[in-house]
From TrEMBL:
GO molecular function: nucleic acid binding
Protein name (Swiss-Prot/TrEMBL): Integrase catalytic domain-containing protein
InterPro entries referenced in this protein's UniProt entry, alphabetically: Integrase_cat-core, Integrase_H2C2, Retrovirus_Pol_polyprotein, RNaseH-like_sf, RNaseH_sf
GO biological process terms on file: DNA integration
Organism annotation: Amphimedon queenslandica (Sponge)
Source organism, top-level taxon: Eukaryota
Length: 138
């Protein structure tokens, strides 16, 4: 703001020094970001400890008839897998989890999803119980 009205050689350094030495400025400054996990968010310590699962769509229909996407994210590595789908019924989603995640990589320890009926149903719950995968709905 002051740069529009005033300028002298070393202006930026003088302003920086002033702000660093001004007690009021330091009290108004936001604290350094912490490494704490935000409230309501889970912290992962190794790959496949926590997978987050969601469905996007309906989207424009592709040539193959797909109009949904199943998105799975590993919370530790931030690796994202996305799978095009024609339907989001419990059988289709269970097949995606088994064929595309479990058979390709491994069993997750925990599986997090929203409370949508397509991801929270008896078929997926029974699969998770059978594979000892803990479920969490947000």
């Amino acid at each position: 703001m002051g740069k529009k009205r005033f300028y002298w050689l070393g202006y930026e350094r003088a302003v920086e020094h002033f702000v660093k030495s001004c007690r009021v400025c330091q009290l108004q400054k936001s604290p350094n970001p912490t490494t704490a996990t935000p409230v309501g968010e889970t912290k992962s310590f190794y790959p496949f400890e926590w997978l987050s699962w969601d469905i996007t769509g309906p989207l424009p229909v592709t040539d193959k008839g797909n109009c949904y996407t199943s998105v799975v994210t590993d919370k530790f590595t931030k690796w994202v897998e996305a799978f095009p789908l024609q339907a989001i019924d419990s059988v289709t989603l269970t097949m995606v989890l088994v064929d595309e995640i479990v058979c390709q990589y491994s069993f997750p320890t925990n599986l997090q999803s929203d409370q949508g009926a397509n991801l929270c149903n008896q078929v997926i719950d029974q699969l998770c119980k059978l594979l000892c995968i803990s479920r969490k709905q947000t």
